[in-house]
Design brief:
Helix content is 67%, strand content 3%. A hairpin with a 5-residue loop joins strand 1 and strand 2. The chain is elongated and about 160 Å long.
Length: 173
Amino acid sequence: MSLLRKKNGPAATARARARSARATARMKASQAAPLAKSAGAAVRQGADEVAARARPRVRRARAWAAPRVDRTGKAVQEKVAPQVSDMLAKAARRLDPAPEPRRRSRRARRITLFTAAASALAVLGLLRKRVRLPGINGAGTTAEEATSGASDQAGPPAADAAKVDVNGQVRTG
């Protein structure tokens, strides 16, 4: 016969111990469940008490900290922020490359010079063709017409013709 098949052998003893241990574990677990539930309730109750005691202290701490945080915010806004802003503006100016000077092409310079010269010649041509002073047959005005302001009206020809310079001044004689 084999040793494992005996009723009172080492295997039977191990099985008996395992059954006994399972029974003991079930019994202890059934006893521990109510204790765990009551422990959870006790912890919740203790946490509520701690929170109730801490609530007034937290309110006092917040009341103490609020004006200080507000004052610090204003100080940062008035003192630190402008300095930071200035530093950032200076850094931006240093980073920004200088604009390259605009260079006109030779063709554009020549066109500009030609236009200016043509304009000057046109003005000179108009000044040369300009009528001396309006009067009858372009003879000019008399001294009486010049003083009375009737130079636009027709009148007898004047013996002394008045001459007008380019700048608009009248010469007699």
